[in-house]
Write a structure and sequence with these properties.
The protein is mainly alpha-helical. It contains 12 helices and no strands. The chain has helices spanning 2-24, 26-33, 38-65, 72-86, 94-106, 110-139, 143-166, 175-199, 206-221, 231-242, 248-271, 279-285. Helix 2 crosses helix 11 and helix 6 runs antiparallel to helix 9 (206-221).
């Protein structure tokens, strides 16, 4: 069964990548990528890593609400190490690594740590759905995106309220601050998208940026192939085409955005794996 699931994921990824390359035209893609200024790339990487640091601060607040005190720096190491593994293996295997790393660093129970991660997923999904709906309204993309984003936000809010009431009530005290921090995390992503859009001279509006951030990152949240390869590109391209965007630079832009989301966090996570207490495991696998 596991082999069948892996085969299906591999086939789906290969198909998505092939479709993306068909739409993008590889020769145009390479030429467009070469036009990206280094300043835009550096600004995008800085914004991405600022968002990751905010993620560690949010995690600290959720753990503190449950009675566990931990430093942001160590949680940043655990967070990026888990993200690195998620970007290298399918089906979000890095989440288990992140739980184990946080358990070693803080002494908190694994179930307690997993509970904070569930709360994070709820907050992220809610904010991203709001971005889709808000971006669609601001960009005039049409009612479809508005209904999808609004309906998803309502469903996540309802499901989150039930989950927090029944199993994770302790996190409600820090929920307001966590929600504001979540907004900051995704604002950093909007800045990253905007920096790259400026570099490619796409001239995207704020509404378009919000819609693309929401749609693309919701696609990454679905467990599947490592780093959301293929699915992110197709969903983001579909969102861009839905608001009337096009041109040879668009595919290069989508690919650059995905690279900036994945590569800096992966490199940082692998470098900080010893801080997260995972060096022996990596050596054993090597």
């Amino acid at each position: 069964m596991k082999a069948l699931r892996l085969t299906a994921l591999t086939a789906a990824t290969a198909g998505a990548v092939a479709l993306f390359l068909t739409v993008a035209h590889p020769e145009r893609l390479a030429a467009a990528l070469a036009t990206l200024p280094a300043a835009s790339l550096l600004a995008a990487v800085g914004a991405t890593m600022a968002g990751v640091m905010l993620g560690a601060a949010r995690w600290r607040g959720l753990l503190a609400a449950g009675g566990t005190q931990a430093g942001v720096a160590r949680l940043f190491a655990a967070l990026t190490t888990g993200a690195a593994v998620n970007n290298l293996v399918p089906a979000r295997g890095g989440d288990a690594v992140r739980v184990e790393a946080a358990h070693k660093l803080t002494g908190a129970g694994r179930l307690e740590i997993a509970g904070t991660m569930v709360a994070e997923r709820i907050l992220d999904g809610f904010v991203l759905a709001i971005l889709v709906a808000g971006g669609a309204l601001l960009s005039g993309a049409g009612g479809g995106f508005v209904w999808i984003g609004g309906g998803l936000a309502a469903a996540i809010a309802l499901g989150g309220a039930v989950a927090l009431r029944r199993r994770f009530a302790k996190y409600r005290d820090g929920l307001g601050v966590a929600l504001l921090t979540t907004g900051g995390i995704w604002f950093a992503d909007v800045v990253m998208y905007g920096a790259l859009a400026h570099g490619f001279e796409l001239g995207l509006s704020l509404g378009a940026l919000l819609l693309l951030v929401g749609a693309g990152n919701l696609a990454l949240a679905v467990p599947g192939v490592a780093a959301g390869l293929g699915s992110f590109e197709l969903v983001t391209l579909a969102g861009a085409h839905g608001i009337g965007l096009g041109g040879p630079e668009l595919a290069a832009y989508v690919l650059a955005v995905h690279a900036v989301i994945v590569l800096p966090a992966t490199v940082t996570g692998l470098a900080l794996a010893p801080v997260a207490g995972l060096r022996p495991r990596f050596r054993a696998r090597a």
